[in-house]
Amino acid sequence: xxxxxxxxxxxxxxxxxxxxxxxxxxxxxxxxxxxxxxxxxxxxxxxxxxxxxxxxxxxxxxxxxxxxxxxxxxxxxxxxxxxxxxxxxxxxxxxxxxxxxxxxxxxxxxxxxxxxxxxxxxxxxxxxxxxxxxxxxxxxxxxxxxxxxxxxxxxxxxxxxxxxxxxxxxxxxxxxxxxxxxxxxxxxxxxxxxxxxxxxxxxxxxxxxxxxxxxxxxxxxxxxxxxxxxxxxxxxxxxxxxxxxxxxxxxxxxxxxxxxxxxxxxxxxxxxxxxxxx
Length: 278
Ligand code: SAM
Fold this sequence. Notes:
Number of helices: 9
CATH superfamily of the largest domain: SPOUT methyltransferase, trefoil knot domain
CATH architecture of the largest domain: 3-Layer(aba) Sandwich
Oligomer: single chain
Structural class: alpha/beta
Bound molecules: S-adenosylmethionine
């Protein structure tokens, strides 16, 4: 897989992709990441990449020409002939479609991803219209530039590439991932997985040694050897975390009858905790 990032700050990425899983994936040749300095595609003495907005208003807008020239050097197919499953051009934008784990999976199956980082008030809309296949936002907030968003997308996508993680299941059975029931050893007497299937909801809380830290104890169930009890506790905690932090996910998640029962119990328990709170 190859990423090309068009930016006015190529140095921003210098160390960003050197660490951990990303660094190893690059060293192993799983992914190639190139940055392209937008100012290198200007034709004036000041290397101007921006201009004043039509219609007035504050701020500056990135001009289309340097971006088109930068993209021309990447040998992409024209937008109308582009096979989006092989190559895709992304405009990073607060106005874009939300970046999700599902979209990260989709991008991980594409050979070539080009990302255009905006700055200032944004990018001339004709870049979106004539060059880009997707307009993507990494969240409901405004960054000062698309570079951080590009780094977020590269990180989330590369860890999904086959061979990037120590265990291939790690990226399947985590927050937003597939359900644990999809695994053969998800029931019965096999040891519970450390990365449990979330099935569209959030992951459960994790603990390691020591068993007691600053007065807070690791739940006793996790310290015992009852695998079924551990699975059930983890599912309950994943549901509770999702209910507390991201109730919207529960509306879309496929929940079993057991999940529904656990959720009813969790709601009751939370109600009780509220009334008992001082
Ligand atoms: N005027 C724009 C607006 O209100 O939507 C904000 C422009 S922002 C200051 C400059 C650049 O940062 C954008 O062109 C985009 O590339 C990037 N950016 C800002 N927020 C982003 C987000 N949530 N996701 C992805 N990119 C973002």
